[in-house]
Specification:
single chain; alpha/beta; Rossmann fold; 5 helices; 29% strand
């Protein structure tokens, strides 16, 4: 049996053909990555109590998406903070908490890593381009750049990808501190947090980049392997 991997998506106004609709959407690269490595992807929309859906999945990916509501980490919105959805934040944090309680293998991607950090007491930089020391981090305005990440020896990430990793960068927010989570990778050029882990669980990893667009199927493969139990 192929493990079932839940993947969160997000709600957006979309246009296709002559239709204008509010839709639950997810870049297909996530679905393709899980399928390639032997999992069965199941898209989870941000609606109501999603924790009951955990009964039907073996692993969880919390995907990238909109900015987090600054209230969730005790700040007020800054001028360049983009549209955010407090209800989605709350439902996804509840989903992650319950997944952690059940020790369901978890991978947080971009926003997913930020949510994981915030729920463990962390905080975000709301806009890297105006944050001293991170102005040149890259990846703003939808332009994808690359940089090197240094992973901590002995970490889960390093065991999968080594200690020097080339990653993509498409984010304008970043994790300022990860709260109680161990930080296991940082950007080599500016020290921005790029990966966090929980070592007390079977598989719990958050990365700031998008492995599904970087040829890093090894991370999704490790998640699926852990989900096989």
């Amino acid at each position: 049996m192929r493990p079932v991997i839940g993947i969160t998506c997000f709600l957006r106004d979309t246009v296709y053909g002559s239709w204008h609709r509010h839709a639950a959407i997810l870049p297909s690269a996530y679905v393709s990555a899980i399928d390639r490595v032997g999992g069965t992807p199941l898209i989870i929309p941000p609606a109501g109590d999603m924790t009951q859906l955990l009964d039907g999945i073996d692993g969880l990916v919390v995907s990238g998406g909109p900015d987090l509501c600054p209230d969730s980490y005790g700040q007020k919105p800054e001028s360049m903070t983009e549209e955010f959805y407090p209800e989605q934040d709350a439902t996804e944090i509840a989903l992650i908490r319950e997944a952690m309680a059940r020790d369901i293998p978890f991978l947080g991607v971009c926003r997913g890593m930020q949510l994981l950090s915030v729920m463990h007491g962390g905080h975000l930089h709301q806009h890297l381009n105006t944050t001293p020391g991170h102005e040149a981090h890259g990846g703003f305005d939808g332009v994808e750049t690359e940089h090197q990440v240094a992973a901590e020896e002995g970490s889960l990430l390093a065991s999968l990808m080594g200690t020097s990793i080339t990653v993509n960068s498409t984010h304008h927010q970043g994790v300022a501190d990860a709260g109680s989570l161990p930080v296991t990778a940082v950007a080599e050029h500016d020290g921005l947090i790029e990966a966090v882990e929980r070592t007390d669980l079977r598989f719990c990893l958050g990365v700031q980049w998008h492995p599904e667009r970087a040829g890093h199927d090894v991370l999704y493969s490790a998640l699926v392997d852990a989900a096989r139990g």
